[in-house]
Structure formats: C-alpha cells, structure tokens
Specification:
CATH superfamily of the largest domain: ABC transporter type 1, transmembrane domain
Strand content: 5-15%
Number of domains: 3
Number of helices: 22
Structural class: alpha/beta
Helix content: 55-70%
Strand order of the largest sheet: 6-7-8-3-9-10
CATH topology of the largest domain: ABC transporter transmembrane region fold
CATH architecture of the largest domain: Up-down Bundle
Number of strands: 10
CATH class of the largest domain: Mainly Alpha
Shape: elongated
C-alpha cells in the first residue's frame, strides 16, 4: 500500500519568480480585498493610532522620574501618573478595537477565498481529480487560504506603521543622547540580519512542511477510510509502521523549521540583552558625570523597544508577505484550472432520444476506450448495456452528463449537441444511480432530498416507499432523521443503494442511468423493488448496466459491448436465438450461477 508515496510530488509547482509573486499578490488583493476598502482603511487607521499612542508613554515615564527624583516636585506626581494611566488605557482600547476589526476582516477574506476555491473545484472536470486524493485537496483548500491569514492587510500596514515607529524612536533617542543612539542603531544591523536569515530559511522550509503535511494527512485519511480492508488483510501493524515512518519524516521537517525559530529567538535576545546592558552601563556613567538624567536613561531603555520591535516586525512582515504569496500561488494553481464549459443554449428535453455519433474517448491518449463508436437510443426506450469488465459500459454512460468529455464525434439528445447546451440544464435532465451509492454525513432525509432539495417530507417518504426503503428507515430509532455517518458507514450496502434509488425517484429525471443500481440488494429486496424500477423506467429514456437477468428483462433492447465496440444488439430472446457472443456469455454464466442456485448473471460490470 505504498501506492500514494509519490502521489502528490507532481502537484508541487515550482516556486514563482519575485515578479510573478508580486503579480499574484496584486491579483489576490483585487479579487478578495479590494472591495473591502472601508474595512481595510478602518483597520489601518486604528493600527496607526494604537502604535502612535505608544510613543508618549516612555517620554512621560522619563518626565515623571526626573520630576520626582531630581526636582522633588511631588505635587504633580498624581497628575502625571493619571495621564500615564490614561494613555495606557487609551492605547489598549484602540488596540482591542483594532484587533477586533482586523480579525473580522481577516476571517472574511479567508472564508471568501475558501468558498471561491471550493466553488471552483466543484466546476472542474473529473480528470482534474483523477490523481489527487480528496484529503490532499481538502488540506490545500483549508490550509492555503488560512496561511494567507489576512497578511496582505496586516503586513502591508505593519510595514508602514513600524517604519514610522522606527524613525520616530530613533530620532528621539538621537536627540536625547546622540552617541548612545548611534551605538544602538549599529546593533540593529546584526539584529536584523539574524531575523532576516532565519526567517527566510523558515519560509523555505515551511513550504515543504505544508506539502508534507497535506500528503501525510491524505495518507492517514485513506488508511482510516480503508480500516476494514486493512483489518481483513491483517495489515494493522505494517500500516501502523508505515504511518509512523511518514510521521517521523514530518517530524524531521517540523524540527528543522522550528530550529531556525530557536536560533532566531536566542540570537536576537542576545543582541537586545547586550544592548540593554550597554545602555545601563553607559547611561549610569553619564548620569554620574551630570550629562544625563536618570529619567533619560529609563526613557532610552523604554525607547529601545521602538527600535528592535519595529525591525523585528518589518522582517516578520516581509517574510509573512512572502509566505502569503506562496499560499496565494498555491490557491491560484487551482483557480487557474480550466473549469467545465457550463454555458450554452437553454435545453429542455422532449423525447429523450440519445445518439452517440462516431465518438472517440480515452482517459489516456495512448489507450482509447472508444473509437468511432455509434449507438442510438430511441426516446423513452430502455436499453441494457452488457459486456465483460473493462468493456467501457460505465465510461459510456458517464459521457452523457459530460462527467467526462469526448475527444471526437458528437453526442446528441433530441438533436442537440450536449456540448452546446447549458450544463446545468443537461444534468438536470439526467439521473444516475451508481453501483457504489455515495451517501453524505447527515440524516437519511437530507441524503434523499439531495435529489430535489425543495421536496416536502411527504414527497421524500413517497420516494422511499417506491425504492422499498421506507420500512427499514422507519425501523431505525430516529427514522428519517437517522445520521448515516461518513459515506453511509452505519448502513449496509443494500440499504445505501435503496436510499440512492429513493433519491432518484425523488429527482424524477427524464433520462435515467442505472449502473448496477441493484447489485447490492439481496434477491428478496430486488424482487420487491423490480416493480418500482419498472415504474421508474416507464415513460423515460433508461440505460441499464446490469448482470442480473431479472434486471436485464426490464430492457427493450440489450446492447453487448466488448473493448469499446458494439458487438450485438437485440432483445434477450433474439440474442439467445442468434447463438452469438451474448448467448455464449449468458450460457456460460447461467450454468455457473445455476449450479450455485443464484440468479443467472450475464456479465461483469466495469
């Protein structure tokens, strides 16, 4: 089960150039932020105010110390103290409002990006999903949008605000003590270099970490989904060891990434600690010489934060923007994928006549499933497609709602090329019940109602009765409100298939495709539902893929396909009488199944 080992490697796009990243950032700003100008302006204004309100605090502190220690002016201590408290409260009030506004703005941008990405993924052709694990796509959708985290708002403003803070802080220190100010400015160089180097390395490693995390999440999800298969094969230990190896690899990436964070923290702390020690030593020396007041020393110690914190913030903002740019690049890798062609002429089905005209189709260019294949299905006719596994039966019916696209030829419904009609109209006219019924986590009611979301409770129950599902649903503790679990895990295969049939009874499409729709039903359940299927097929064009004789007997015509070629067609009786390929296959399977007392099986399904 190592088949997913390199599954996602091909999905990792090369990192874009700096100019390309800048272009992507501008594009993201235009698509997701530009229309929120009022919120952005408010957040930026509040951030500027909360930062500017920090500047008077060290100056006021310096003044209080000088007044109390040197001038002994105790009479104004209370006023100065109250002013200091008022400034602090005001600054924190603005900070709180700023954080609230920024948080709301950030989350709005993230949700907008995630919703847009999910909507676009839904519009992509199935071939896009062929080699991509669903959990990998989920991780990309959730984590890439989250990685942006409004950085294109916060960090751009942070750069402007902190650049201003640094300039003002440096000017005040240089004004108070030029020599000390110059020394402190020189220490900014190693401080900034340490932060810049380590953050750049962390950015490079974090991109690899995100990719490894997405791939590992996909692998774990796949094993959890296939836990029954793993248990049945007795491979719990081997799979646990495999996942442990993958998690160990991920741990190594985490450790390497965060190690640079440790180096950065220790290195910058060393610079700031030595600088503080220098200011204390040199400042107190100047105090003893009468060249500085004690208040000025304390003030400069406080103002040091206006040098190091802005540099730290500027470097982090730059790296944050780069990380956001990488996430934006990954988002647009998906958003730039060509969606299905959904626009076209308004389509209203009348007779339901289907024509496959000389079509070519292949999943891979070198291996064609159909070449110059033709088949006509009369309106309201029921046909059955039979053939060996891999003959192309399921592939053929998936072309009708354009789940896959033909490479040549035409598919017509009532004379209209399906590529020229509006895709929502086309799919609204076609219903498919597949062999593997897919149920979503939620109630049985909601799963059936997917066929027609506005259906009433009574209509849902009527559909369930037609699908022979009402009795078993009613026997459940919560009836139609019973939660079926992920992919219908709490139900049997036959129960899931009956719910899928109920969904289609409710949908009431004009063209119906039953792809082994009753394969998971036992003989008793199938017998009970045959009349309902006859009723469902009546008056609409129906294509049945089946191997049970009882289901084949619903068809007006049987079409035998082998390796993408139409070999024979006719009624069951005609094909048996002709003693051709269908008769030989049927006889072979009939004898095999009759020996086991089972319903005759014609052929396997794709």
């Amino acid at each position: 089960m190592e088949l997913d080992k390199n599954r996602h490697n091909a999905d990792v796009a090369p990192r874009a150039s700096q100019s390309a990243l800048s272009s992507l950032l501008r594009r993201f700003w235009r698509d997701f932020i530009g229309h929120r100008k009022a919120s952005v302006t408010l957040a930026a204004s509040l951030m500027v105010l909360s930062v500017l309100l920090q500047l008077p605090v060290p100056l006021l502190t310096m003044h209080i110390i000088d007044v109390v220690v040197e001038k002994r002016a105790f009479s104004i201590v209370n006023q100065l103290g109250m002013a200091l408290v008022a400034l602090i409260l005001l600054r924190h009030a603005f900070s709180y409002i700023n954080e609230s506004v920024t948080l709301t703005l950030k989350e709005s941008i993230i949700v907008d990006a995630q919703s847009t990405l999910f909507r676009h993924l839904q519009s992509l052709p199935l071939k896009f999903f062929a080699n991509k694990h669903s959990t990998y796509l989920q991780s990309r959708l959730m984590n890439d949008a989250r990685a942006v985290e409004g950085a294109l708002v916060r960090n751009f403003v942070t750069i402007a605000v902190n650049a201003l803070t640094f300039v003002v802080g440096a000017a005040i220190i240089l004004y108070l003590q030029p020599r000390m100010g110059l020394v402190l400015l020189l220490t900014i160089i190693p401080f900034g270099c340490i932060r810049l180097f380590t953050n750049q390395r962390m950015r490079s490693l974090s991109a690899d970490m995100q990719e490894q995390q997405a791939a590992t999440s996909a692998a774990i999800s796949e094993r959890l989904a296939g836990v029954a298969t793993i248990k049945s094969l007795g491979q719990q230990n081997s799979q646990a060891e495999l996942m442990a190896q993958r998690l160990e690899t991920l741990k190594g990436v985490y450790v390497r990434t965060n190690w640079f964070g440790v180096v950065s923290g220790i290195g910058t702390s060393l610079v700031t600690s030595l600088s503080t020690a220098f200011v204390l030593w040199y400042g107190l020396h100047l105090v003893t010489q009468g060249e500085m007041s004690l208040g000025q020393v304390v003030g400069i110690l406080s103002l040091m934060n206006f040098l190091y914190a802005p540099v730290n913030a500027l470097v982090a903002a730059n790296i944050g923007i780069q990380q956001a740019a990488s996430a934006v690049q990954r988002i647009y890798e998906f958003l730039d994928e060509e969606p299905e062609h959904a626009h076209g002429e308004t389509f209203r089905l009348s007779q339901g006549r289907v024509e496959f005209r000389a079509i070519d189709f292949a999943y891979k260019p070198e291996s064609k499933v159909f070449q110059d294949f033709s088949l006509t299905i009369a309106g309201r006719e029921t046909i059955a497609l039979v053939g060996h596994s891999g003959a192309g039966k399921s592939s053929l019916v998936r072309l009708l709602p354009r789940l896959n696209e033909i490479q040549a030829g035409q598919i017509l419904i009532d004379g209209s090329d399906i590529r020229s009609v509006a895709l929502p109209d086309l799919r609204a006219a076609i219903g498919i019940v597949e062999q593997q019924a897919f149920l979503f986590t939620g109630s049985i009611l909601d799963n059936i109602r997917l066929g027609r979301p506005m259906a009433t409770q009574e209509e849902v129950v009527a559909a369930a009765r037609n699908a022979n599902a009402h009795d078993f649903i009613s026997s459940l503790p919560q009836g139609y409100e019973t939660c079926v679990g992920e992919r219908g895990l709490t139900l049997s295969g036959g129960e899931c298939q009956r719910i899928a049939l109920a969904r289609m009874f409710l949908r009431d499409p004009r063209i119906l495709i039953l792809d082994e729709a009753v394969s998971a039903l036992d003989s008793q359940s199938e017998e009970a539902i045959q009349r309902s299927l006859q009723s469902l097929c009546r008056g609409r064009t129906t294509i049945i893929i089946a191997h049970r004789l009882s289901t084949l007997m619903l068809a007006d015509r049987i079409v035998l396909i082998e390796k993408g070629v139409l070999v024979e067609e006719g009624t069951h009786e005609e094909l048996i009488a002709s003693q051709g390929a269908y008769a030989r296959l049927f006889l072979q399977q009939f004898q095999s199944q009759h020996a086991h007392g089972k319903d005759p099986i014609g052929m396997e399904t794709t």
